Amino acid sequence: TFKFLLVYDEPFLCEQICANVSWERFDVELIGYCENAVDALEQMIDEMPDILITDIKMPVMNGLALIARAKQMNPFLQCVILSGYAEFTLAQAAIEQGVQNYLLKPFSRAELENTLQKCCVKIQKDRSKKKMELKQRTESVSGLFQELKVLKETDTSIKPEQIRTIMLPYPDLIVLREAM
């Protein structure tokens, strides 16, 4: 399941978005609706979304500042901007922030669902990549542990040169610390 947070200061538009998109088709669940970025950041402390859909111009903090702070909390967060402003500089800044899409009002249900689909695919790829990295790291630690175990069984006084030789195929010293 993917979690999304909606941040928009127009309640009517939020109701329309929530009611007209087939969220369950994408296995997406609304975890909250906020009218401003400050409330959204507080909500993210309690429950981090996978997808953030936000307006760009809001009181107190704009959508770009919200996205920057939210991505510090979760670099894999997928962000979508809904806006009535077709300003090139805003769109360019959004792209620099890694926003999945910049939808101009009025946008269609199909446009939003297409963007949602892209977000879900990207999240799945990121999750798969993280699982693969974790698996490789676990295998590295396990392999190094076995090599150290064999070395200790054959020689009670392990020399630094022996550890350096064993460490050559491993990426970093953290693996050694975990193995030890």
Short description:
The protein is of the alpha/beta class and about 180 residues long.
List the helices and strands and how they pair.
Blueprint: E1 2-7, H1 11-20, E2 28-34, H2 37-46, E3 51-55, H3 63-73, E4 78-83, H4 88-96, E5 101-104, H5 109-154, H6 160-167, H7 173-179
Parallel strand pairs: 1-2, 1-3, 3-4, 4-5
Helix pairs in contact: 2-3, 5-6, 5-7
Keywords:
180 residues, alpha/beta, 5-stranded parallel β-sheet, 56% helix
Description of the structure:
By secondary structure, this protein is of the alpha/beta class. Helix content is 56%, strand content 16%. It contains 7 helices and 5 strands. The chain has helices spanning 11-20, 37-46, 63-73, 88-96, 109-154, 160-167, 173-179; strands spanning 2-7, 28-34, 51-55, 78-83, 101-104.
Overall outline: elongated
What order do the helices and strands follow?
A: EHEHEHEHEHHH
Ranges where pLDDT stays below 50 over 5 or more residues in a row are: none
Radius of gyration: 23 Å
- Strand ordering within the main sheet: 2-1-3-4-5
Mean pLDDT: 86
User: Percent helix among the residues?
Assistant: 55-70%
| Relative strand content | 15-25%
Q: With helices defined by DSSP (H or I, 4 residues minimum), what is the helix count? A: 7
The biggest sheet, with number of strands, parallel, antiparallel or mixed sense and barrel status, is: 5 strands, parallel
End-to-end C-alpha gap = 37 Å
